[in-house]
Amino acid sequence: MQNKFTNWIKWEDRNNLNGINYPGIYCIAVSDKLLTEFNFIPELEYVGMTNSKGGLKSRLNQFDTTIKKKRTNHGGADRFLYKYQNYDAIKDSIYVAIQSFKCNTKNPLPQDLRIMGEITKCEYDCWAMYIENNGRFPKFNDKNNALKFSKIRT
């Protein structure tokens, strides 16, 4: 499964990823060292998925607006933001890798619905592989231990 992901790329270059307009899985990592080939490394801090009509591009933009404190509309990014509250200080250390699934989410046929189901299963498989490699959930998928930034605001 790891070989179906793109290589890690810098967060700011995410819109250049092949398949970004399709639904799929995305992984967010934070590292001061250069990340290249995708793997379920400890620096991977969040695994997410989308089956939305806007595809991965739309979902990653939601993540981006949340970590930039423009809008808190992404739960995982809200937990990410709790730890990394200064976007300018962290932005050059954020990486993303995706696995896109070509299907029609606007007018889905049965085969498209099956692919969308595969995406959901793939997210669970990613969590399982991450846990097998690292002994825990990715930091911001661990809802019991990762606080949300939106909950500390008054």
UniProtKB/TrEMBL annotation:
This is GIY-YIG nuclease family protein.
